[in-house]
Structures are given as C-alpha cells and as structure tokens.
Specification:
The protein has 148 residues and is of the alpha+beta class. Helices cover 32% and strands 16% of the residues. It has a single domain, classed as Peroxisomal Thiolase, Chain A, domain 1, CATH 3.40.47.
C-alpha cells in the first residue's frame, strides 16, 4: 500500500493535469509489492470526476502522460480491455458515499480476485488488482495492490 499527501491549495500546483499524490502513492505501492502497472489486471479508481479518472490512468502508469483518454476511446478500460476499470460502476454509480468509498473498492477487488463478481462484469482469472482512493482534491491518496 502506498500513501501520499500534498498541499491542498490547487492554486499552488504547477500542473492542473496532474495529481502528484497519486503518482507518489503508486510508486510506493509498486515498489513494496514488486508489481508494475503492466501486472495490474483490474482496478477500481476514484472517479469523482471524469477528468480525475483519466489523470489517474496516467499517474498510475496505465497510460503515458496525455494519453489517458485514449485508453477510454480504445475500450481498454472496459471488460475485456487491457485494464478494466470500475466494473462496479465506480463511485458515482454508488452515490459516492464519503467514507465508504475505499471499503467498497476493496470489497470489489476482493470479489474480482476470488472469482465472485457477478457474471457480465467479472475479469476471469484475475490475479492482481489495484484500488486508488483519494481525499479532497488529491491532498491524500492511497494506492493498494491486491494479489491472489
């Protein structure tokens, strides 16, 4: 698990198309686990806004900088794609329940890795999953990697 924080003042950020705490938390999680972005088979990401999810693809290493939206256009984040993301529907589909968001992500990835996710939205044979959750505008970020 990687945890990172940064200043909450958006006006002081050098780049508004970046969430540095996600990048740092991911770097820590990858280092501790021995996995790389290429090893992740399913992910649940903090999709409070569409742009946040796209930036997270880049910060987590799923896409090169500036290429996050391309993953969506190519269907790579859908079931059957390179890195299925938010097959649970994501936070907005759950009403974005503050405080329970991280728990719901952990439950979803656990169900996926155990092969218990409902048919039509399960990644068959998934061995490695990732959750990314954050608070405020990325002031706090948590990346957790799960494996069977």
């Amino acid at each position: 698990m990687g945890v990172a924080s940064l200043n909450n003042l958006i006006a002081e950020r050098r780049d508004l198309a970046s969430i540095p705490s996600v990048r740092l938390a991911a770097k820590i999680a990858y280092s501790q686990s021995g996995f790389t972005p290429a090893d992740i088979q399913i992910a649940e990401l903090h999709d409070c806004f569409t742009i946040a999810e796209i930036i997270e693809y880049e910060e987590l290493g799923f896409a090169e900088r500036g290429k996050g939206a391309q993953l969506v256009r190519e269907g790579q984040t859908e079931l059957g794609g390179k890195i299925p993301v938010n097959l649970s529907g994501g936070l907005k589909a759950k009403g974005h329940p503050l405080g329970a968001t991280g728990v719901s992500m952990a439950v979803e990835i656990t169900k996926q890795l155990r092969g218990e996710a409902e048919r039509g939205r399960s990644v068959s044979g998934a061995q490695v999953g990732l959750t990314q959750n954050m608070g405020l505008t990325g002031q706090y970020s948590f990346v957790t990697i799960y494996s069977r």
